[in-house]
Amino acid sequence: MPEKPKRVDLKLPRSWNQCTTEQLETIAACIIKHTATADRFHPFDWQQVKTEIFFLLTNTEIISSEERDGDMLFLCQQASGKRHNANTVFGLYSWQVLSFIEQNLKWIDDEKQSLLVFPYKRLLCVWRWQRHFPFLKKKYFAPSELMQDFTWQQYRHMQDYMSLYVNQQNTLMKVMQSVHDVQQVADIQRQMLATRSAFLSILFHCERHQKLLRKIGEVQWQVVLIWWGGMMHYLQQRYPRCFKSGDGGKKKKRPPNPLELYVSITATMQKYIGLDEEKVNGQTFHVILEQLERIAKENEEMEKINKKHKHK
What we know:
The model is unreliable at 1-5 (pLDDT under 50). The chain has helices at 21-37, 46-57, 94-104, 152-177, 182-203, 218-238, 258-272, 277-282, 285-311; strands spanning 60-68, 71-78, 88-93, 122-127, 136-141. By secondary structure, it is mostly helical. The protein is globular. Strand 4 and strand 5 form a beta hairpin.
């Protein structure tokens, strides 16, 4: 009897929200690895990242490779597991890998895709109060799916910390690519860790225990960054006028700093809704964004009406 063809399961998640926490951390670790090794001679390449992610998520190992028929043929083996046949050996041409990635992993670098389900349901912090005391434990629970339980003040502070973190990260990259002063690099890294801990302390509602959150690893933090990027994309789609950027081709102006933006928004809410600063800060941030979106829309409509009257 002829041998039955080998059945190989190369199933992959079709979106961020279909990923398990383990798969998210696998993707995050791969992104960190390629980011760390990127330089001006070897720039970050999403295609290489997705190729490695393909092999990692399908639990596929390349045993050997050879050129055949003008293409590269990979002799592969899947690790044993519930979904895989033990020691299943099969061949994959590079064109097949690229085609499979294009069909199944295009969501990874598609900005329209969002990771809205926060992957860590709770955070367990363990620490010792004093060396003579036993270990104490405290659990911090994750935010709701769309962060409905966050006030405007909390959301604003998280935005400020994330903006600061990105600026620090960009500064670190510039320093490492130029002078590469060891002490300066270490100082920036400490600042980034403090900023990251401040952001996470608000995210997990544990502002009094920022130092404990420094124990969260780089991979977990990268997963949080992926989630935050998805959350920001969702908010931009829902409240487009609140996140409107650019000025229609006119000369770019200096973007307002966080304090200027905060003062402006607070003044707007006081003028149109009659809320004082304390009440604005205590409102759910979705409510504030909805109000700002409505005000901006009404102003746009008024401008259109005024323009029509001027042309008459």
